[in-house]
Amino acid sequence: MIPGFGHDTWWLILAKALLVFVFLVLTVLVAILAERKILGRMQMRWGPNRVGPRGYLQSLADGIKLALKEPIIPFGVEKPIFLLAPAISTIPAITAFAFIPFGPQVSVFGHWTPLQVTDLPVAVLFILALSSIGVYGIVLAGWSSGSTYPLLGGVRSTAQVISYEVAMGLSFATVFLFAGTMSTSQIVTAQNRVWYIFLLLPSFCTYLVSMVGETNRAPFDLPEAEGELVAGFHTEYSSLSFAMFFLAEYINMTTVSALAATLFMGGWHAPWPLNMWDGANSGWWPVLWFTAKVWLFLFIYIWLRGVLPRLRYDQFMALGWKILIPVSLVWALIAAAIRTLRNQGYPHWTPVLVGTSVAVTAVLLYLLQRPFSNRQLRKKRRRTESAAAAPLEPAFPTPQLPGKALTPATKEVANG
């Protein structure tokens, strides 16, 4: 049992669970509106500006519209699984947030309780397991629809999650090494002095890329690639079922953003220079710092969608298997060696860790941009042009076209 947990009364546990649910729903509503308005400004347009004052009620109106629309179930679907799939995606996404700490212990009507629903000694692994369960909803939705395009979207999502969950798990390993625990609340406590983003920068960069791939967001939105798959795995869904998939996607974005803040940015601890104030990390103020960090990562999601085009599938898979996973493995070995030096009393382990972290991060960033650099693109273009310019030798006899002579290679095939 984690200290401070397991002693709350039933009404306090219920109140915290309801507050987490309300926080997630409100965050989704605001995130959808903010995304549409920010992308509108990036693309030199207004975005939503009709429903409510300056369009601020657009997300609420869209939610009410989806809830009131008539659900359509196509002929030939596996009806029980078709109806269950949205719940399989949504429920784990909401449950995972129960392990995220919002702040320290506070007094609520005379009861001292941590601002967290619950915690486990392996809470981070439990969150990772819940995110893995959520992908079954996508796969089952594609399969049960009885259509080709949703099935392709579900299969793509399976390969995508497997690829990027491996890299994400390896980025967690170094945090576990230096925190000495897998509990989310104790990982935040371990960052009381120095955040792990400064000590474990390669792990943070790996997690930043992996969390975008894990949540199927641009430029990694291949399971839903609207331009080529007609909305992907949820093509046959409408009304409230479609809204649940939409809700699960944005809740997953919020959960992985909160996990990034928890593991690498001190969780609810105040940033510098606010942490110099004695009351910054006590009371209800930490909820504000934590929420600001979550919204920082949500803005990164929106920014990436506005500035980056979608990757090809081969580029996407190569990024995970050929770059993120090998670099994460090497960095985990280096971090384990430095942790061993720390345990043996080596006095200068912190400068060695920071210097090595910066060097590995530089290598990772170089490898990430290399496939998309101008030099590599020019090489690929030259290879394509040379292959197109080379005469193709037919593998079977080709009759002579009117007014054109046969090439030597065609004559040999024709005469042979």
Question: Over all CA atoms, what is the radius of gyration?
Answer: 26 Å
Shape: globular
Helix share, percent: 55-70%
Q: What gap, in angstroms, lies between the N and C termini?
A: 82 Å
Order of helices and strands: HHHEEHHHHHHHHHHHH
Overall pLDDT score: 85
Q: What's the structural domain tally?
A: 1
Organism: Mycobacterium cookii
Pfam family, one: NADHdh
Family: Belongs to the complex I subunit 1 family.
Subcellular location: Cell membrane; Membrane
Give a short overview.
This protein has 416 residues and is mainly alpha-helical.
Descriptive account of the structure:
One of its GO terms (cellular component) is plasma membrane. It is an enzyme of class 7 (translocase). Its main location: membrane. This protein has helices at 10-42, 58-68, 79-96, 123-144, 148-179, 184-190, 196-199, 201-214, 226-229, 239-264, 285-307, 313-343, 349-369, 374-389, 408-415, and strands spanning 103-108, 111-115. A two-stranded antiparallel sheet has the order 1-2. Helices cover 65% and strands 3% of the residues. Helix 1 (10-42) packs across helix 10 (239-264), helix 3 (79-96) packs antiparallel against helix 4 and helix 12 runs antiparallel to helix 13 (349-369). Mean pLDDT is 85; it is low at 410-414. With 416 residues, it is an all-alpha fold.
